[in-house]
Write a structure and sequence with these properties.
With 202 residues, the protein is α+β, with helices and mostly antiparallel strands. The protein is 28% helix and 24% strand. The radius of gyration is 30 Å and the shape is globular.
Length: 202
Amino acid sequence: MRDLKALFALTAKIFVMCSLMLLAITATWGTKSGFISSAATSQNEGKHAMAFAISSKDFQNGSDIPKKFTCDGQDVSPDLSWTDPPEGTKTFALIADDPDAPAGTWTHWVLFDVPANTKNLPEGMSKDEQLPNGARQGRNDFRKIGYNGPCPPPGKPHRYFFKLYAVDSMVNLKPGAAKQELEHALEGHTVGKAELMGRYKR
């Protein structure tokens, strides 16, 4: 009888020890699984954050635009680059404008039908209506073709937005088109958008 009780006691101890070991193993795997899941999430978020971003080697987003790219300097366009266009992109379009202008938003650059394999607009783009790669330029609010840079009145800094659109087709506008015409043509055809903003004051 005593041997039977001892056997039962030993069996109970073994059961408890096995249960504790199982809980420990489950907790360990859960922690590892959580780590892997978090790492994967971080990687996905990193990839998402990098998608279709526009940048310039001449100024950082939110920083001052160098005088070289304004009416107080050489008034040439800054270098612009972008990555990872959305799937379905056939062309790009670009609008640069100043929403802080006294008379309302002032357009500085209108560009469209930029080929989908383009990843960069070099500094000092020509002011021709038709570019060698097939892209076309519109007319800005200075009544000129191509880029004209910041030229605000004295006072507070103005913001200048370079808005890049990924488009699923050619927009079929003639060179010299106004910003409003381009915006209308982009309706229902934009598959992505990226922005870069710089500041300038006089």
